[in-house]
Amino acid sequence: MTVTESAFLRACRRESVPHTPVWFMRQAGRSLPEYRKLREGIAMLDSCMRPDLVTEITLQPVRRHGVDAAILFSDIVVPLKAIGVDLDIRPGVGPVVARPIRSRADLAQLRPLEPDDVKYVTEAVGMLTGELGGTPLIGFAGAPFTLASYLVEGGPSRNHEHTKALMYGDPELWAELLDRLAGITAAFLAVQIEAGVSAIQLFDSWAGALSPADYRRAVLPASSKVLGAVAGSGVPRIHFGVGTGELLGLLGEAGADVVGVDWRVPLDEAARRVGPDKALQGNLDPAVLFAPRAAVEEQTRRVLDSAAGLPGHIFNLGHGVLPDTDPDALTRLVAYVHERTAR
Ligand code: 1CP
Prior knowledge:
seven-stranded parallel beta sheet; alpha/beta
């Protein structure tokens, strides 16, 4: 089977599929013992810059679970690190930024991204497309709002208070910050597409913190710029956020071919909110995988039933795999979705 005719890409294009394709956000990573072993003594960001490690870590969940797509092992802050922003990924915490961006002078940390800044990404994608055969590779980037949250807060944040203070308090500086991030993100996605990824996902993980009116005014223009910049590439664009039930229509409007849905809105209702001509991705609650097998299957059937009438469904979790998830539960889930949906 060619990549172009894979179940995953056919579903992105809303064509008929032999079975519902499945992959998991954060399918590579801490849930896998082979990942933990490989990462021993190597810092997260260092591992992202080593094409041999990136290739091996990306392939691990494909081999183990038989998922229908691979996702490049990287992180949303990699392009920021690549342009020289002083940041680190701390174990058990996440991205931490040395000098948070709060003023116009701080914007000087953000110069445009050149393809040469991320040669290791180009190299890793090249190695992976060789190894993956007919399995599509998904590239990704963080959306401007989610990246801005890390940059303005200086690290992970529950309430995004500094970010919102800037957004409401200095709309001009905010627009400039998001516009620069949109340029960096678009360039980072273009590098991955040029290197051979088959689809891209824009992660606006924290956009659910915003009201629809604020999202439309202060965030959508920048995300549209990113998605518009890669629209002509022929590569499907997945647009995802968490807690975005009230924003699903706007995520689609920003320019997606596939809208990612978390577990809070059933897929049939999500389809009504997103409107026609877009595929959907989701949306099993990642915590369901901690329940007994029969309960996992019951909840999986609920997701599949709510997607039954829709052309274009990619099965996924509503957010990333939780670190303590039993990897065998993931392998069983892939097989179960394939069996239940075989046509
Ligand atoms: O040392 C480690 O192992 C650190 C854990 C880790 C891993 C495995 C981090 C730190 N990032 C990653 C990889 C990663 N990050 C992937 C891998 C590919 C795959 O899915 O298999 C992806 C897609 C990301 C993207 C990412 N990073 C997002 C968007 C997706 C999401 O989960 O919403 C976000 C928000 C981040 C920031 C980040 N990086 C790492 C952590 C722990 C976090 C979240 C911190 C927070 O809660 O704010």
